[in-house]
Amino acid sequence: xxxxxxxxxxxxxxxxxxxxxxxxxxxxxxxxxxxxxxxxxxxxxxxxxxxxxxxxxxxxxxxxxxxxxxxxxxxxxxxxxxxxxxxxxxxxxxxxxxxxxxxxxxxxxxxxxxxxxxxxxxxxxxxxxxxxxxxxxxxxxxxxxxxxxxxxxxxxxxxxxxxxxxxxxxxxxxxxxxxxxxxxxxxxxxxxxxxxxxxxxxxxxxxxxxxxxxxxxxxxxxxxxxxxxxxxxxxxxxxxxxxxxxxxxxxxxxxxxxxxxxxxxxxxxxxxxxxxxxxxxxxxxxxxxxxxxxxxxxxxxxxxxxxxxxxxxxxxxxxxxxxxxxxxxxxxxxxxxxxxxx
Length: 342
Fold this sequence. Notes:
Elements: H1 3-18, H2 24-35, H3 48-53, H4 65-79, H5 87-105, H6 132-147, H7 152-187, E1 195-199, E2 206-213, E3 216-223, E4 234-237, H8 248-257, E5 261-266, E6 269-279, E7 282-292, E8 298-306, H9 316-323, H10 330-333
Antiparallel strand pairs: 1-2, 2-3, 3-4, 5-6, 6-7, 7-8
Helix pairs in contact: 1-2, 1-5, 1-6, 1-7, 2-5, 4-5, 6-7
């Protein structure tokens, strides 16, 4: 999720644990801990692909965070011994904030290395990377806690429960769409071996569906509010890797994306795109892997580069209209620019 949401979640979880002891300092510490795992974005792993696939790695691992939380707690208690905030309480608060950060990230489409150093990217895809309906209640609880010493802890506890229920709703909404997708794939004679169902921007009602096929993929939209249960899928070319050997960066990107990749040539550039974030020809994570030389042969770049693309907010009104169940605008939405980066 975005940094504001993670800081707000960290502060609210800390306030909920502190209860009657909730105050501005507790909220500030929680917010700082809530953003701590994302500081790995400051590390440079050498190129654009490595910086993408190694984010949410060691700093998000459920095998690393508990001992790290214990170290932070021990150092705090050595520095600021307190009768109430003893080691066990500080450890519980710290590990709770850090773990809720990484679990929330695992509910987005991006993927989280929950068991680093062991391989594997895990994601539920039941919430978009930015969702105001999730974030705003957290901010409200923080505001109440800052101005109400008596009720701040209770508000934080209530909102933590509410936000958890919202994530549960996102999963239930996704499963409702998944059942509908399964029926549509069978009725339209489309493959069902590799299917992606992920929320569109800022909501858990309108879902994007990607179905992988031989040499192409199918893309469709489905809203919980649709009256017509038929999903209009559009076929798009997948392309293929033109070189005999795959560089290690491409192998890593395949694992990161679970092979939801598209290959295309634009000018003299060979571009590999992650199909999971974005829509149609406006995808969030695209990388230039090779360029054609004067002899017409592909030359791998020493360092992969992000392929620039424009993104805007001007068509969110159309997205809102489709969310409400207007399936007549599906053709326009398949080409609209509504992608956002984390």
